[in-house]
Specification:
Helix content: 40-55%
CATH class: Alpha Beta
Largest sheet: 4 strands, antiparallel
Distance between the termini: 39 Å
Strand content: 5-15%
Low-confidence stretches: none
Length: 211
């Protein structure tokens, strides 16, 4: 495969998350079925795992709304972000094309194009032509108007936050084999990161239960 300087691939950092997320979920689940309060309750790792499994099996999904995760995402296309922001229970902050000049703009290349030498050549040629025209237009009109010629392939950066319930719903939809390749790739990276933090919540066995 050709190495293209302006090509971008998805990258992600889990910026922050609710401390002790599994304990929080388990404590909420315990409260729902416990006559007393949970202010001073102590739960073992086995208790936590059991209560999470119970919440999933009973579809008691509200307890997963008490924990949240925030991601810094880059290297995805505007095409991908258009799909991503449809998950309306996420909170999003996206890089502005109105205030950020895209000269020499990075872009994402679909694998089917990159694997086809003729298609790749045409694709890169067009990206270069658009970049030249964008630079010219930026001298003639406001950047917010010059951006109208930028393609869906243009890279964007996003900060996204969601609670665990919405994340699991997202994973159920976007890790599915029929999901579009780029957002599925993004979902795989996100799932890998949150699984490190809360493996008893974020695992493949649990995904199928969420709606």
């Amino acid at each position: 495969m050709e190495n293209i300087e302006r090509e971008r691939k998805p990258g992600l950092v889990l910026l922050t998350h609710t401390p002790n997320p599994e304990l929080i979920v388990a404590t909420a689940m315990r409260q729902s079925r416990f006559k007393g309060g949970v202010v001073n309750i102590e739960l073992s790792q086995n208790d936590i795992k059991r209560l999470i499994e119970l919440a999933v099996s009973l579809k008691h999904f509200s307890v997963f709304e008490h924990i949240s995760f925030t991601f810094a995402i880059e290297g995805i296309s505007r095409s991908c972000s258009h799909q991503f922001v449809r998950h309306r229970f996420f909170s999003f902050t996206q890089q502005s094309q109105r205030y950020v000049k895209e000269q020499g703009f990075p872009f994402v290349i679909p694998p089917t194009i990159k694997d086809n030498k003729n298609a790749l050549s045409k694709f890169v040629k067009l990206m270069d032509e658009i970049d030249v025209l964008y630079r010219e237009l930026s001298q003639l009109v406001p950047v917010e108007d010059a951006r109208f010629i930028l393609p869906n392939a243009t890279e964007t950066k996003v900060v996204a936050t969601a609670n665990a319930r919405e994340l699991m719903h997202f994973f159920k939809l976007r890790l599915a084999s029929q999901a579009q390749w780029e957002i599925r790739e993004l979902a795989e990276i996100m799932f890998k990161e949150v699984s490190k933090v809360a493996p008893d919540i974020f695992n493949e066995d649990n995904i199928k239960f969420f709606e």
